[in-house]
Description:
Layout lengths: L2 H12 L4 E6 L4 E4 L1 H9 L4 H4 L5 H10 L3 H14 L6 E6 L8 E8 L7 E8 L1 H14 L10 H18 L3 E8 L2 H8 L1 H16 L7 E7 L2 E7 L3 H17 L15 E10 L5 H17 L5 E3 L7 E3 L2
Helix pairs in contact: 4-5, 8-9
Amino acid sequence: xxxxxxxxxxxxxxxxxxxxxxxNGSGNLAWVNKAWHSxxxxxxxxxxxxxxxxxxxEACESATEAGDESAAEVYHGLKRLIAGxxxxxxxxxxxxxxxxxRWFLMRAKPLSGxxxxxxxxxxxxxxxxxxxxxxxxxxxxxxxLTSLPNRRRFDDFLEAELRRSQRASQFLSLILLDIDHFKAxxxxxxxxxxxxxxxxxxQSISAAARRPSxxxxxxxxxxxxLVLSQTGKEGAIRIAEAVLRGIRDLEIPNEGLGPGxxxxxxxxxxxxxxxxxxxxxxxxSQADEALYQSKENGRDTLTVYEERAMGHRSAx
Length: 316
């Protein structure tokens, strides 16, 4: 490439941690900085493809033909950029090593002035940023007291699992659970003990969500929810009964505020093989109706919602 670029920018770009290269209109590497060389050497890269005069586009094309989807995105993005069909190109991609998870951001844009006819490419390690974003995203969908997924996560998960169940014609069950006499418990023992009670119950319920396709969530207040994918009525009943036993086995004293000596819970359950007309709000309403019936029946019990022509069949 011309001397103007080398004279003004070589030292500055060599001092940067990003891997930086300049290519010409054919895709040949006209210049690379020290970080570019070092990254290739440290990651067992092919030096023939990373040294000056190697063709970066051909390397991307070759990786594309081998099935590398990221290489395909980069190849087509750079082709559009060089053809003048875009002003810049950005792409985030995974580049994991055997010992660590890594993410990089690639930027590419044309050089101007005396270096016109060349394009600069940089690769920046954004792993920490991605981890920070993941942590923030997790916080946004996690209940701070119980560490269970919150109502927002529950709503999204139930909707997704309902649609998947509809497509696959598979069973889906929903459990709503409410701690019995929790207001009286909270008033009697205080909010600190009330929070501890919620945490213990949450841990017990979360043990029932063993599969990636299950979700235990704090629905709100003293109410919890359990989504059981690919689970019919009989299987859901077994799980619900185990949840009720698990809460009794916690033996959280309630000073006679309920029907026994320890904290208990009531459950409403709905199980369905949903058709295309069923909405997630229908499932929640049905489970809530069954939960109300459990409380009417004396609490510390389970009620299964019975279908009432809601556009779906009850699971067996």
